[in-house]
Model the fold of this input.
Amino acid sequence: MNRWTPLAVLVTTLAIGAVLMTTTELPTSQAEDPKPEYVGVKACKACHFKQHKTFLKTKLAKSYEHLKPGVSAERKKASGLDVDKDYTKDPKCLKCHTTAYGEHSGFPALVEGKEWTKEEKARAELHAGVNCEACHGPHSLVIPHKKKHKDYKRADIVKLGAFAPTKPENCDHCHVKECPTMPEDYTFSFEETKMSDKLHAHKKLKKEH
Ligand code: HEC
Ligand code: HEC
Ligand code: HEC
Ligand code: HEC
Done:
């Protein structure tokens, strides 16, 4: 045996190890790529106190409440809706009056004849109403990224789940004439509403990303 043999054995072992790792581990690591999840309004409070506080007072935050019997009675009456009906049981209404309806970590879909699990009930509470992430995208991966990268780039947070904050496409699917309370000639302007206090109070960003 010459003195290089142990090294050769080590190198060969490492090479075989590397081949095994790429062949056996790649598919699983791809399957386990973390998916962005919806985390709810409270998760934003610590860093966006002002937006959080003012948002909670808006109609957007109460848009799920408005589906309940007796609530928003005038608007319902004027639109020919049944004031006593519980529209929180109507998926057609929930798709716009909740956050991420039917998505894997959003407001759970209603399925005929199936009760929600405990986990789904908790999720329903978290995502009732048109909340932060309905407009800004799921934040489970964005928040840790922002904590680590004070000088984060917008393109990176978009890759991690944030909707390009914020474009008309993030609003248009809900702001179309589909709600029974909307007038026939309903129109929506992103440019006119994007800085409105009806969303939340706005604060100028400290820096460009
Ligand atoms: C750990 C702190 C932290 C948390 C938690 C956090 N953010 Fe942020 N976010 C920031 C910082 C820092 C900025 C940049 C602020 C600035 O430039 O003035 C920012 C900016 C933003 C912006 C502006 C767009 C941009 O350029 O990024 C939006 C929208 C936003 N956050 C949404 C949210 C939402 C929604 C949540 C909760 C789901 C949330 N953030 C939670 C730290 C946080
Ligand atoms: C998930 C669906 C959904 C998305 C996405 C959405 N909205 Fe809405 N929006 C609603 C609903 C539902 C209401 C009505 C709330 C209520 O009064 O019950 C509403 C109401 C509003 C109002 C009126 C609030 C008031 O006080 O009268 C404004 C302004 C608004 N949205 C702007 C936007 C903008 C800007 C975006 C995109 C950045 C957006 N919305 C995205 C569903 C949505
Ligand atoms: C395509 C999305 C969409 C669907 C579907 C939808 N809504 Fe809405 N709803 C909205 C938006 C957006 C507004 C706010 C409109 C405005 O600015 O006047 C709204 C407003 C309302 C309001 C007024 C709340 C208030 O501020 O007092 C009520 C009540 C309401 N919707 C009930 C319903 C019911 C009941 C259904 C199902 C039968 C339904 N909506 C389906 C998007 C939707
Ligand atoms: C209905 C849609 C909508 C909801 C709900 C919403 N936002 Fe926003 N948000 C916007 C829009 C539109 C802008 C302005 C984007 C732009 O500058 O073009 C904005 C801007 C921001 C900014 C940038 C700084 C500022 O104040 O303008 C932050 C931070 C932010 N939102 C956080 C939040 C948080 C936290 C919540 C929930 C507590 C929330 N947003 C709920 C639509 C929304």
